[in-house]
Write a structure and sequence with these properties.
three-stranded antiparallel sheet
């Protein structure tokens, strides 16, 4: 498996990191803003951000005293491509199954009725 893909999936395995990604999809945010809803330290949130950054999901910048996080949406193309490949395979399997089931449909029941 591609190392970058593995890093992305590993980064998204944590619910706090998934929530951070969801929040950053709306707008850039500071570490303090991202840490606010969690009962964890700023250092813990910074570690989560480091994992997301290593995976390529976010970038960070410093502006004065504030550190901002920005969602890198291009990495989602990698995920989407991987997921779509397997979704298409599954759809083809289901289409083949639908064809088999259609062939198995019994003949019209009216052909086998006896008249009263």
């Amino acid at each position: 498996m591609d190392d970058s893909l593995s890093r992305v999936f590993a980064a998204l395995a944590d619910p706090i990191r998934r929530d951070i990604v969801a929040r950053l999809s709306a707008d850039d945010a500071t570490v303090t803003e991202l840490a606010a809803p969690y009962d964890v330290s700023l250092q813990a949130v910074s570690k989560h951000l480091a994992v997301l950054e290593t995976a390529g999901l976010i970038s960070r910048r410093k502006d004065g005293q504030q550190r901002w996080a920005h969602l890198e949406v291009d990495v989602f193309d990698l995920l989407t491509g991987w997921i779509d490949r397997y979704r298409r395979r599954a759809e083809l399997r289901y289409q083949r199954l639908d064809a088999v089931l259609a062939d198995m449909t019994p003949p019209d029941a009216t052909d086998h009725r006896s008249d009263p």
